[in-house]
């Protein structure tokens, strides 16, 4: 029998709590739900007001993995939704606004992905993201080298960057911006990627061409496009272990000395929150972003 629980006055059916989602560690669906409930206070501010895409893996990362962008069938009527623009026409998507809707969505077994704009102002981006993706044999170590160069380059334009792990093998840099469209942020991000390649020719790459990527870090600027989404801070990832897209300090980026570093699982992130709080808290809150040069 599926247990029913009440979250903030909403009745939820939480199913298959004993199902093992990550066989490498024995991490269960119940543990996934517990992780999201435990981190809700820091996760929700990064989701609230943003149309959310779900990367679902109901049978674990080794099973079927698929994106859900439109409001899923069976969504409770109390879950907030919003109409958002798309090139093929407007669509209705979920907004995860509170603990109840977070737990409902987590019960679907999801990664949370968001746009770089808020649902009530899609014409203006409020985040800039640079996704640093290493091509083997490059690792997180090389990503950190590129991230440090980009930090200084952004700082020269008065923009403060904040790092988080991708939750797999790469690194994300985030910054709060204002007064620019997604197209303008994309153009600026591409310019940074091109400059990084010029300054670090053996290390950074601004083109996605697969044949060019071995041993280099692809600086993916394209995720700033209005249609694109990026893994949200604190989301679990559909990987072989319950890795999290976890904020890190610049000190940790500077000290990254090996490919196994900066890989955090769910229990690590809960402990880190007790030590650091939300390292990305400065990104939350309207009107605090920097204007692009």
UniProtKB/TrEMBL annotation:
| Annotated keywords | Ligase
**GO: which molecular function terms?**
ligase activity
Q: Which InterPro entries match?
A: LigD_pol_dom (IPR014145), MtLigD_Pol-like (IPR033649), NHEJ_LigD (IPR052171)
User: Cross-referenced CDD domains, in alphabetical order?
Assistant: MtLigD_Pol_like
Which residues lie in coiled coils? Answer: none
Annotated DNA ligase D polymerase domain residues: 28-279
Q: A Pfam family this protein belongs to?
A: LigD_Prim-Pol
The organism's place on the tree of life at top rank: Bacteria
- Protein name, per record: ATP-dependent DNA ligase
């Amino acid at each position: 029998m599926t247990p029913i629980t009440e979250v903030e006055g909403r009745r939820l059916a939480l199913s298959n709590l004993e199902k093992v989602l990550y066989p490498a560690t024995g991490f269960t669906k119940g543990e996934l739900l517990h992780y999201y409930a435990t981190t809700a206070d820091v996760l929700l501010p990064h989701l609230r007001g943003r149309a959310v895409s779900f990367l679902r893996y109901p049978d674990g990362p080794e099973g079927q993995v698929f994106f859900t962008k439109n409001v899923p069938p069976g969504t409770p009527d109390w879950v907030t939704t919003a109409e958002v623009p798309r090139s093929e026409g407007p669509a209705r998507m979920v907004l995860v606004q509170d603990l109840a809707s977070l737990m409902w969505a987590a019960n679907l077994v999801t990664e949370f992905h968001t746009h770089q704009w808020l649902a009530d102002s899609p014409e203006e981006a409020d985040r800039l993201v640079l996704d640093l993706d290493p091509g083997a044999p490059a690792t997180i170590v090389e990503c950190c080298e590129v991230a440090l160069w980009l930090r200084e380059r952004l700082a020269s334009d008065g923009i403060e960057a904040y790092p988080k792990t991708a939750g797999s093998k790469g690194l994300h840099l985030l910054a709060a911006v204002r007064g620019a469209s997604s197209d303008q942020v994309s153009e600026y991000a591409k310019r940074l990627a091109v400059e990084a390649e010029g300054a670090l020719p053996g290390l950074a790459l601004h083109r996605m061409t697969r044949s060019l990527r071995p041993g280099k870090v692809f600086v993916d600027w394209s995720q700033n496009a209005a249609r694109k989404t990026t893994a949200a801070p604190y989301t679990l990832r559909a990987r072989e272990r319950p890795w999290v897209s976890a904020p890190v300090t610049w000190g940790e980026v500077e000290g990254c000395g090996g490919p196994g570093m900066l890989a955090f699982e769910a229990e690590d992130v809960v402990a880190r929150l007790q030590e650091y709080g939300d390292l990305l808290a400065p990104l939350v809150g309207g009107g605090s972003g920097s204007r692009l040069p």
